[in-house]
Amino acid sequence: MVGILVILLGFVAVTFFLLTRDSRNEQEWIRLATDLQVHSQQLSKSAGEAVEGNRGAFIQLGESARIIANAVRALKNGDPARQLPVLPPAFRPTLGDLDKNWARMNANAESILEREELVMDLASASNAVIEVMPEIQELTDKMIGAVDDALENKQSEIMQV
């Protein structure tokens, strides 16, 4: 009887250990998926701000890309440092779609990051053009007014002749 009780306690201990381990893994996978969601939104926002010439956005863009890459890698390959196994086979189709989308997003983010100086120069030139637009518009309006006045004077001269 004592032997059966010891075997049952051992079975309960192993079951409890496995459930705890699986629960921890599921929580970690959920945390990684949440990180992916949050940082993909941040990546999109940072990319837009970086293209507009916000130098700080380049830092955030690189950080978000790094976090997403690490999360995707941990989901695909597991993470020995966290003792996290790969996702179960049932998630392979979704993980494949995620991997394809991330590859495309990462290439775009890397393209922006690699061209930081060019993007900053373009943003600076764009801002310079935007700053002088009111002056150009004012000068254009004056020019049109002067041409209109000259034409009216010419028409008056022609009519007097």
Layout of secondary structure:
Layout: H1 2-51, H2 55-77, H3 92-114, H4 116-160
Helix pairs in contact: 1-2, 2-3
Question: Gyration radius, to the nearest Å?
Answer: 32 Å
Q: What's the overall average pLDDT, rounded?
A: 87
Question: What is the general shape?
Answer: rod-shaped
Strand content: under 5%
Tally of individual domains = 1
DSSP strand count: 0
Low-confidence stretches: none
Helical residue percent band: over 70%
Which sequence of SSEs, written as H and E, runs from N to C?
HHHH
Q: CA-to-CA gap between the ends?
A: 132 Å
Q: Which structural category do the helix and sheet elements fall into?
A: mainly alpha
The description of the largest β-sheet is: none
In DSSP terms (H or I, runs of 4 or more residues), the helix count works out at 4
Keywords:
161 residues; mainly alpha; 4 helices; rod-shaped
Could you characterize the architecture of this molecule?
- The chain is built from four helices and no strands.
- With 161 residues, the chain is mainly alpha-helical.
- The chain has one domain (2-114).
- The longest helix is centred in the N-terminal third of the chain and has 50 residues, at 2-51.
- The model has no long low-confidence stretch (mean pLDDT 87).
Short description:
The chain is mainly alpha-helical and 161 residues long.
